[in-house]
Amino acid sequence: MKIFLKGDRCYTDKCGFERHGYPPGQHGQARAKFSDFGIQLREKQKVKRMYGLLEKQFRGYFEKAERQKGVTGTNLLVLIERRLDNVVFRMGFASSRAQARQLVRHNHFLVNGKKVNIPSYLMNIGDTVLVKEKSRKIAQLMESMETVARRGIPQWLEIDKEKYQGVVRMFPTREDLTMPIQEHLIVELYSK
User: Fold this and answer.
1) Which of 12, 20, 76, 88 has the most CB atoms less than 10 A away?
2) Are 166 and 72 contacting, i.e. CB atoms less than 8 angstroms apart?
3) How far apart are CA 85 and CA 31, in angstroms?
4) How far is residue 104's CA from residue 119's CA, in Å, rounded to a whole number?
5) 87 near 170, Cβ under 8 Å?
6) How much is the pTM?
7) Residue 122, number of CB atoms within 10 A of its CB
8) Which among 82, 80, 173 is positioned nearest to 125, based on CA atoms?
9) Which residues pair with residue 131 across a beta bridge?
10) 10 Å Cβ neighbour count for 37?
């Protein structure tokens, strides 16, 4: 499944998944038979890989989502979407989540006027993300800002391109998350 790990390359014809819709190797085209556990595990691994999380972090988000009121699977996805590196990616300041993570780690952003270099920082409603003055000349950031129109900006975020600033208007809902994720499989896996 195409999970858009390579940034803008995934939107072109050079995307590896577009060229070959099967895994590499001699047995890549063989029909894969998965058990129920295998299907659930692959779904969890897909989401972890999409957002660049390790198992311990992902498990922590699941436990936090389980304690919250509402549907556990939806709570999990909303928690992960609220991460600073993901918000930077969604606002269009980076072309991939990996690039967004690196930009956050290298102190290129201010959150509510304060330096934050932790990619897992959870954003709240009304939080403002601002690109530092010195960082606005970075070529990667400029390219990402130009190509964001192709990807689109979610409704729960608000962007001011002239000021290099974005605001979290509200928490994302399940309808805002367009990626093909079956969160109920992840909940079933962790509930065993």
Assistant:
1) 88
2) no
3) 36
4) 6
5) no
6) 0.84
7) 15
8) 82
9) 109
10) 11
